[in-house]
Specification:
This protein has four helices and nine strands, in the order H-E-E-E-E-E-E-E-H-E-H-H-E. The chain has 194 residues and is an alpha+beta fold. The strands form two sheets. A six-stranded antiparallel β-sheet has the order 1-2-3-6-7-9, with helices on both faces.
Length: 194
């Protein structure tokens, strides 16, 4: 296990340009992927980008896991995205409260409007290209991590700063609201090898 420090907002590494991976067998790249997964799990996050552990590569990982509030049919497997490109987004948007391990260690939440469905193309850790079409919380976390690769924090996209809240109030007031559960609902995951 290689858990790394989660870089916090204000650190210039979160805004630095990220390098394209051209050698998928590079020990450095493989270690970054391992460290990302280990750190994401340790921090209890559902996604994490390389620069959040101080590595400026175009890599992120996602894994919305089953929890007491997220049933198995709303979870997804661990996915690695290397050199990702979002190639399509839906016109339909939804507002979901987001937090981030790099913003007060995931203890601040705010409403962010994003496309409900996306299509992303990327390479996995073995250098195999894939396309993923998805919606709900999976599309949300992908867009959030993709923004990290552009040097963008979710705080720059908050739709109403008066609605900012701590994780305690988020869990009490927002997390289980019916409309919020609908916005997060995954109804589509289509993964294709390219």
């Amino acid at each position: 296990m290689a858990v790394r420090e989660t870089i916090q907002i204000g650190d210039p590494r979160l805004k630095a340009e990220n390098k394209i991976v051209d050698d998928f067998n590079s020990p450095i790249v493989r270690q970054v992927v391992t460290d990302l997964v280990d750190t994401m799990h340790k921090e209890g996050l559902i996604g994490m980008a390389a620069q959040q552990i101080g590595e400026n590569w175009k890599i992120f990982v996602t894994e919305p896991r089953e929890t007491e509030n997220r049933p198995a049919d709303q979870a997804d497997e661990l996915r690695v995205y290397i050199n990702p490109v979002i190639v399509d987004v839906s016109k339909e948007e939804s507002v979901i409260y987001e937090g981030c391990g790099s913003v007060l260690h995931g203890t601040l939440f705010g409403p962010v409007k994003r496309p409900r469905e996306i299509t992303i193309e990327a390479f996995d850790q073995d250098g195999k290209k894939f396309r993923l079409v998805c919606d709900g919380i999976l599309a949300r976390v992908i867009q959030h991590e993709y923004d990290h690769l552009q040097g963008i924090e979710f705080t720059e996209k908050i739709s109403d700063y008066k609605q900012l809240m701590t994780d305690e109030f988020y869990r009490q007031r927002v997390k289980m609201l019916p409309e919020y559960l609908v916005a997060q609902k995954i109804t589509k995951i289509i993964a294709t090898k390219l």
